[in-house]
Design a protein that fits this description.
The structure holds 3 protein chains of 3 kinds. Chain A is an alpha/beta fold. Chain A folds into 3 domains: 2-83 and 156-223 and 308-361, FAD/NAD(P)-binding domain (3-Layer(bba) Sandwich); 94-149, no CATH class; 225-305, D-Amino Acid Oxidase, subunit A, domain 2 (D-Amino Acid Oxidase, Chain A, domain 2, 2-Layer Sandwich), CATH 3.30.9.10. Chain A is built from 8 helices and 18 strands. Chain A has helices at residues 13-24, 59-83, 101-118, 128-134, 156-169, 211-214, 273-286, 334-347; strands at 2-9, 29-32, 48-49, 94-98, 124-127, 144-148, 152-153, 173-175, 182-185, 189-193, 196-205, 225-236, 244-245, 248-250, 255-259, 294-305, 312-315, 322-326. In chain A, the strands form 4 sheets. In chain A, strands 1, 2, 8, 9, 10, 11, 17 and 18 form an 8-stranded mixed beta sheet that branches. A 4-stranded mixed beta sheet of chain A has the order 5-6-4-13. The radius of gyration of chain A is 20 Å and the shape is globular. The model of chain A has no long low-confidence stretch (mean pLDDT 92). By secondary structure, chain B is mostly beta strands. Chain B is built from 1 helix and 9 strands, in the order βββαββββββ. Chain B has one helix at 29-35; strands at 2-4, 11-16, 19-24, 42-43, 50-51, 64-67, 70-74, 85-87, 89-90. The radius of gyration of chain B is 13 Å and the shape is globular. Chain C is an alpha/beta fold. In chain C, helix 1 runs parallel beside helix 4 and helix 1 (14-25) runs parallel beside helix 11 (318-335). The radius of gyration of chain C is 22 Å and the shape is globular. Classes of the chains: A alpha/beta, B mainly beta, C alpha/beta. Strand 16 of chain A pairs antiparallel with strand 23 of chain C, so a sheet runs across the interface.
Amino acid sequence: MRTYDLIVIGGGLVGGAVAWGAARLGASVALLDEGDVAFRAARGNFGLVWVQSKGAGMPPYAHWTRRSAELWPELAGSLAEATGVDVGLRQNGGLAFCFSEAEYQAREDLIARMHNESGGSGARMIGRAELRAMVPGIGDGVVGAAFCPADGHANPLKLLRSLQSGLAGFGGDYLPGRTVDAIDYDGGFTVRVGAERFLAKRVVIAAGLGSRRLAPMVGLSMPVSPLKGQIVVTERLAPLLDYATHVIRQTDEGSVMMGDSQEDVGFDIRTTTPIMRDIAARNLAALPALRDANVVRVWAALRVMTPDGCPIYEQSATHPGAFSATCHSGVTLAGAHALALAPAVMAGALPASLAAFNAGRFDVPQA
Amino acid sequence: MFRRLEDPRAEIEFDFEGRPVTAREGESVAAALLAAGLRGFRATAISGASRAPWCMMGVCFDCLMEIDGVASRQACMVTVTRGMHVRRQRGAKALDGAAAPFDDEEGDFA
Amino acid sequence: MSAVFDAVIIGAGPAGMAAAITLADHDARVLVLDEQAGPGGQIYRGVEEMSLTMPELFAALGPDYAHGDELAARFRNCGAEYRARAMVWQVIPGEEAHEVWVSQGGRSSRVLARSVLVATGAMERPVPVPGWTLPGAMTAGAIQVLLKSAGVVAEDLVIAGAGPLVYLLAAQCLAAGARPMAVLDTTPRGNLTAALPLLPGALRGKGPGYLAKGIGLKLALRREGVPVFSFVTDIALKGTSEVTDIAFKSRGRPLWLSAGVVALHEGVIPAQQMTRALGCAHEWDDVQRCFRPRTDGFGNSSVEGVLVAGDGGGIGGARAAEHEGRIAAAEMLRRAGKLDDAARDRLAAPERRGLAQHLAIRPFLDRLYAPPAWVRAPADEVMICRCEEVTAGAIRAAASAGAQGPNQAKSFLRTGMGACQGRMCGPVVSEIMAAAHGISVEQAGYYRIRPPLKPITVGELAEAELD
């Protein structure tokens, strides 16, 4: 039985980033994870560091997202230095393709609205000519795009791996195969896993869809539910797309990932052919050269969604030292989780700028 | 190296990287090229290592070639046809049709 | 929505053909989908064409191969709908009917089936030895395919491995006039001793016939003077850009042969890609060291309406596969409402007796040819994932960094994410993860298999016909 400064429950991108960030500050950290087969949103992540459309209607989320994007280079640099893993960060801007004048107009309106709400992200609309210069193979059906220079992408699997190995490098314990049974509180926390006991002064619940069950054990609420997303992956291809986009990106390894389906279907990770087909058709319209690319894998993964789609961060009022952390943007927000949230957790208080992410917001009756 | 047994089947000719190769009707591209003495069928996208058919039954995907302009086709699963154009594949597949030249002449026709 | 087939059979090998014949005989609406150009599967590959065009070679391949020609002829005439060069890339279980997505001639469409029979057979166990990725390193089955489908033989061939196919291939090469330079028998010391108590069982049913054939093959090699090295270990294929030599130990003695083509073989294992993707429960066979889908006595998997017959359900050989195909057909006829339970049982009864005759020898053979330990414990420098070029050492490092099983190894290292979709590395990665964590392979588990079961192009997927 060992006593830690911090136990993070959940070995995905959120938990991994918080655990790594805390261990980097010198804290003794245990990261509890499930076994080989878990829902693992991290493995199905699309890999975007995506700023331009995040936080419409919730300025603190827009600001938090921008801050994370700004912190990302430091995160990537630190991970590379400490673990030797290049997480493939590329922040050369991102494109949201518009397939009709109506979509173009809607995007333009969104950017204007977000500018008014939360200040500019630097996003702007670009027409076909400029788009063609950036993406030479762009399909005729794409009328324009929103371009945001702060957007980018990274390799989520390499990020996850480097966070875990980086944690070990700072003396932290990555403890897989531990599905938490209970959390006891007597001023400190005792996390029970079968016959095992882990003690800590602080606990972060970042267990994705498992958080719903765990949060009430420490007086928190994390009303998350699964939202299925499917991703179509091609074989490795020679470079053909320089920018991240919201529906398609080429990874640092050369394979092209396509996705954009949103299905609210409960805990079902089977793939469905009509949606695979729609994803393929839409992306073929964006990049006709993909026609001959081989699809090698289709993923269905479960996004972790809160009722309003924004993250939850909160310290328990009844169990001080217990924190919740969940979002569906584990890559985008990794910079903030590692370099801003983790220090706040270790300092024992979340900053005022995160007050808006309190789960109490879901208890307010809708007007 | 491989050789052909007495074979009464019709001979057909196809193009391998600009050279004519004789095959027998009905056989796979991979069988025809092995019989013609080809050793390396492709270079991998990662290390560039030379590869050739391992299983000949569609399982291993090590015989991937560019066939009639389409890359990453399983040469063991494609029946050779008269006038077909076949090239070795180097590295990751290019979608613009301009396959990178195969510059490793080791593993060439024996 | 198109009409629903009583049965869609995936694979036109012995199990699939036999099942189709029985189904069609009972007026069931049956569709057979197969990737090859003609029926026969791998065991009877090219059998129709060879019997017509190369009668001498056909005769040289012996009566067991000729049996496939008769079976294929009966299959052709049975009335079942048969689509060749048809690649099934996804099967989605449904309540009323299963969806089978199939690619043919670059176009994909869907067929519906009340029952799906997975008759996709076996694949050869991966043999991860140093140099096994070099051009010239092939499976024994690949050499057979070249012989059967193209009349192409290797000149400078060394056959290395264990199992009936090693001696069969050597004999077939000899009969075709292409003498192997050597046979390296990797059957471990101790396997024969361990198998001997099972010999009496092997003398029942068709066992004596199989044993006689095996002994005959070995004698033929001796008669022809093909060198056979016993108790071979430490195989390494040598060469920079292609195989030029093979180093090995025989009875502990280091040896070295020149060879341009090396056929490796350590037995066959069920091809589990499709049953895994379907979500069928699998069980681990600790003697044969392979996973196989769990089935009941009629071939039903754990997924309603999905049946398995032939080597894909566990290795029994071609003749056993036919009986299993007919038993599964009886069950599919019952599911289609063409037979009641009693009639199904009557139809299946003689097949069960026939199956038992052919399976009598299996416990002995399975123990005798249980794969040697080195097949599942390759050295750190050996490439395991051929597509993504990941070594055994990297997989072990991922295990010690916390990867609990093959799926985490996959996300750490991309093992199994390449073109073959994990077919070649999966069995070995499960073994390595199990050994690294001191757990059983069953506990370590296997990759989650994703569609498409084989790659299709983005264009084909985008235009898949949803009817």
